[in-house]
């Protein structure tokens, strides 16, 4: 077999498929969009019951509002322009299969100020001009429908253009030859239009910041209805704003994540970035508009402490991992104990990564619980995120486990013996 044929064979071989293979690739793009629409409807309904049968689904005419489509496209265009602004530094991603590194506009504090703060200033101006930001509550359903439609269209574009990409630019897991699965998982690893990286842009910009804007719209709707925002609404908005601000402030860390390094850019990530994140991660704020909750100062303080502990674990462990991957000789990580692998890389077995194999997931889940607690215990809907996220992270951890065992072999087995707990110390 020639070298070119061998490479092609390796790239297109039928590897172990994620998310249920072809069946999952057919069902997930159908059921997840329906789930988003269902959850938005339920969160705005008086009953807020996810167990209602038949399920509460909106009539078709409620899904379309031209204002929603124009708002969404304008929002994406705004952040596309901000992405292209020549500020900040340029950082290199991890080494690709062909030995090259892609360059990314990592703006750090400039990006934080430019994206999040520019969005905030524009929203404040709209408020001063009397714009009814509370109308986001009524537009939430058509906004979600528009985001779903844009996700499908972008995914089709990405799948078609991937056939013009060179072999080394394809994701190993997304080039199986099965069009349904490849469309879902993503064929091309880092699709770009010139220097504009589509995956990196969608990962951090329109959907993530849009989540904050939707939350603000829910807060303004509560002000319209009750004269002032509740303590529960303020906590939810503040916690989730901190989470998004942290992601933008530390945006360079995303370059070492599984999404950027391993997964192709197909429907799975496109839909997740543009529709799933902004419209399901903030269900607590939508729920509180129609189901106000009273919080005592003591309960609020306890929830704030829980979120603070989760954030501390999340940020410290992620920073340690990112620093070690980029420069293992840096003073902040140079003294940590490691295990050598056959690939030449080393595995951390002390610090945060000696506590559990995924301390960042532990911090993430503690924060997720803190976001839901302000909504009380009478409904399960506000806890959808923490339930879903627990399942997602356990599944993601299993994916990472398979990849690391295949990559590091005996060294990974040694690491697992040294660090037996995956996410929850002494539990899992």
Automatic annotation (TrEMBL):
* Protein topology in the membrane: Multi-pass membrane protein
GO BP of this protein: cholesterol biosynthetic process
Record GO terms (molecular function): Delta14-sterol reductase activity
User: Hey, which pathway is this one from?
Assistant: Steroid biosynthesis; cholesterol biosynthesis
- What are the transmembrane regions? 21-45, 68-88, 109-133, 139-160, 265-283, 295-314, 368-394
Which UniProt keyword terms apply here?
Answer: Cholesterol biosynthesis, Cholesterol metabolism, Endoplasmic reticulum, Lipid biosynthesis, Lipid metabolism, Membrane, Oxidoreductase, Steroid biosynthesis, Steroid metabolism, Sterol biosynthesis, Sterol metabolism, Transmembrane, Transmembrane helix
State whether keyword Phosphoprotein applies. Answer: no
The enzyme's E.C. designation: 1.3.1.70
What Pfam families does UniProt report for this protein, alphabetically?
Answer: ERG4_ERG24 (PF01222)
Lipid biosynthesis among the record's keywords? yes
What's any one GO cellular component for it? nuclear inner membrane
Reactions mediated catalytically: 5alpha-cholest-8,14-dien-3beta-ol + NADPH + H(+) = 5alpha-cholest-8-en-3beta-ol + NADP(+); 4,4-dimethyl-8,14-cholestadien-3beta-ol + NADPH + H(+) = 4,4-dimethyl-5alpha-cholest-8-en-3beta-ol + NADP(+); 4,4-dimethyl-5alpha-cholesta-8,24-dien-3beta-ol + NADP(+) = 4,4-dimethyl-5alpha-cholesta-8,14,24-trien-3beta-ol + NADPH + H(+)
Q: Where in the cell is it found?
A: Endomembrane system; Endoplasmic reticulum membrane; Microsome membrane
PROSITE patterns given for it? STEROL_REDUCT_1 (PS01017), STEROL_REDUCT_2 (PS01018)
State the family named in the UniProt similarity comment for this chain.
Belongs to the ERG4/ERG24 family.
Function comment: Catalyzes the reduction of the C14-unsaturated bond of lanosterol, as part of the metabolic pathway leading to cholesterol biosynthesis.
**Can you name this protein?**
Delta(14)-sterol reductase TM7SF2
Per the UniProt record, the source organism is: Menidia menidia
Per the UniProt record, the lineage of the source organism begins with: Eukaryota, Metazoa, Chordata, Craniata, Vertebrata
């Amino acid at each position: 077999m020639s070298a070119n044929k061998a490479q092609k064979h390796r790239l297109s071989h039928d590897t172990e498929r994620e998310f249920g293979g072809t069946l999952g690739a057919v069902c997930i793009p159908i059921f997840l969009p329906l789930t988003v629409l269902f959850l938005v409807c339920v969160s705005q309904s008086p009953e807020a019951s996810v167990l209602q049968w038949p399920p509460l689904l909106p009539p078709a005419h409620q899904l379309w509002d031209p204002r929603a489509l124009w708002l969404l496209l304008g929002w994406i265009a705004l952040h596309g322009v901000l992405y292209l602004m020549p500020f900040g530094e340029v950082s290199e991603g991890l080494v690709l299969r062909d030995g090259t590194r892609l360059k990314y506009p990592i703006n750090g504090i400039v990006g934080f100020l430019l994206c999040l703060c520019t969005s905030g200033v524009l929203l404040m101006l709209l408020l001063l001009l009397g714009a009814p930001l509370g109308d986001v509550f009524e537009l939430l359903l058509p906004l979600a429908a528009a985001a779903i439609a844009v996700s499908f269209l972008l995914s089709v574009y990405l799948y078609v253009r991937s056939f013009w990409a060179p072999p080394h630019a394809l994701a190993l897991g997304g080039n199986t030859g099965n069009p349904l699965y490849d469309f879902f998982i993503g064929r091309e690893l880092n699709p770009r239009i010139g220097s504009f990286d589509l995956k990196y842009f969608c990962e951090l910009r329109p959907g993530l910041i849009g989540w904050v804007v939707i939350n603000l719209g829910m807060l303004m709707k509560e002000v319209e209805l009750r004269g002032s925002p509740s303590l529960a609404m303020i906590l939810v908005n503040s916690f989730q704003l901190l989470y998004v601000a942290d992601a933008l402030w530390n945006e360079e860390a995303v370059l070492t994540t599984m999404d950027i390094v391993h997964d192709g850019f197909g429907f799975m990530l496109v839909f997740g970035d543009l529709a799933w994140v902004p419209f399901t991660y903030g269900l607590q704020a939508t729920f509180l508009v129609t189901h106000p909750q009273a919080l005592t100062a003591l309960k609020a303080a306890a929830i704030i402490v829980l979120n603070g502990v989760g954030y501390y674990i999340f940020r410290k462990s992620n920073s340690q991992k990112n620093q070690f991957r980029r420069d293992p000789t840096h003073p902040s990580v140079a003294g940590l104990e490691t295990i050598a692998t056959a690939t030449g890389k080393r595995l951390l077995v002390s610090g945060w990564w000696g506590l559990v194999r995924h301390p960042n997931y532990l911090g993430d889940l503690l924060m997720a619980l803190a976001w839901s607690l302000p909504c009380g215990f009478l409904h399960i809907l506000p806890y959808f995120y923490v339930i879903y996220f627990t399942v997602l992270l356990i599944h993601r951890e299993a994916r990472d486990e398979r990849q690391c065992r295949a990559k590091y072999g005996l060294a990974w087995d040694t690491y697992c013996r040294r660090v037996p707990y995956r996410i929850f110390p002494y539990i899992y």
